[in-house]
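Morning!

This is the sequence you dropped in the shared folder:
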Amino acid sequence: MIVEDLPEQVRQHVREARRKGLRVGCVPTMGALHQGHSSLIERAREECDFVVTTIFVNPTQFLPGEDYTRYPRTLESDLRCCADTGADLVFTPQTDHMYPDNAQTTVQPGKLAEVLEGVIRPGHFAGVTTIVAKLFAVTEPDAAYFGQKDFQQQLIIRQMVRDLKLPVEIVTCPIVRELDGLAMSSRNRYLSAGERSAAVELSRALAEASRLAAESTLDSLQISERMWSLLQSSGQLEVQYAVLADPETLEHPVQRTSGGRAVALIAARLGTTRLIDNELLRFS
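The structure's back. Tokens below.
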């Protein structure tokens, strides 16, 4: 496995792979890798001939007061994970490689970034789209792999790729969960033992929303209210949103139609840790 921190060197390796006729896959990450990330690399390994994983804690997607400085940086174990799961190249740039002092250009997302996470974390998605565009420019992938857990993020990146005519296929991979249902996240390591027990309420509320969509006649607002009530009953969660939305546009509330689809999305604070989760639903 090759490890490079210079964009020019990464581009050379990728172009050499392309000259050999290899399909290039990219898995962008911020490190602190877990089994969810491993599943992305493994999917890329299955579908591509040359797999690039990027590890970069991107400062522009953190708001003032968020956890940029304490975000876990575990490069040694991350590299072992990449090697074990089949990455061919790992790109580990320094901040000034991606944001030189004279950098001025950013990518501004549109309507998809103005709801849910975009309301609570204004400017976050501009940081995401800007760094992903930069990583695509360096790694020149045929396909890029993202997790469903960041549901709004993957929609916005899909939109960016369409709008900017980037020749990259965006592949969204299923959420990987702990045995008790908690969605795997690098930030789970912030949770105390008591908070960890309460965190599973997110997946339980989503499971109830899925059950109600399939087995009841409740409309989306009523199901959302049920999720909210379940989350609040834990006594530890500060719920920021719990909604059913259109899985393509994120418009909410979504109309209930027989066989129709929706996505249930939750964000909540647990102590100092912010958690998000989601579940795709189908109405009976």
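Headline: The beta strands are 2-4, 24-29, 50-55, 89-91, 143-147, 169-173, 237-245, 261-270, 273-282.

More detail when I'm at my desk.
O.
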